[in-house]
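Form 7-S
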Amino acid sequence: MKRAFFHYKRWAFALLLLVVSSQRPWDLLPAHWKPWTPLQLDHPINAVTRMKLSRLQSEPEACLSLLATVPQGSLDYLALEDYTPVESCPLSNVVRVRSTAIGFNAPFTLSCPLLVRWVMFEQQALQPLALKHQGSALTKVEHFGTFACRNVYGRATGRRSQHSTASAFDVAAFTFENGAVANVLKDWDAEEDPQNSAFLHAVHDEACRYFGTVLGPDYNQPHENHFHLDTSNFNLCR
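Output:
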């Protein structure tokens, strides 16, 4: 009986070894760690996800297809044809957004890759942070817009701003279901309202995982009243 038992174990182990060896190790990886699998909006942010997000810059059809997977009612947008609203600042791969799962103070036009990052950020980080720090869902975001045909800081010379291709989004304030408002200018270092301050700092830090560059009040005076979020590859978080 004992010999039969060990005989069975030996064959079971051999079968298990055969199954494991017949599989390619990388097949055991989750989809968000596989560089060759398509990006999904619910993929956690990691180095591979960020690489896939960067690839959307040159893959407009893939970007729009990804937006099409957003559940109905969670994103109201219109894909736009390429056009040139201002001479020397042509726009391509852009969409017009009215709302996501939250509302905005005004509709805005931005690049499709930036919208994908925003939707992922909103779902995976922004709403959970609202519930954690405010105990209430986020309902509205106030922004300063996306497109501006200019160089960085409006200088006469120098490199173009990410705003010149609608690839940057300036966010100024957040409104919650309970009526509370966290304003970047007023609440970033507000000792009298540590709850709002903690929320804004957490939002800034989490945004650095989703966007190429994130600039806020600690960076310089021009950003004291908003968060600048864009799709550049500078990996700057200030």
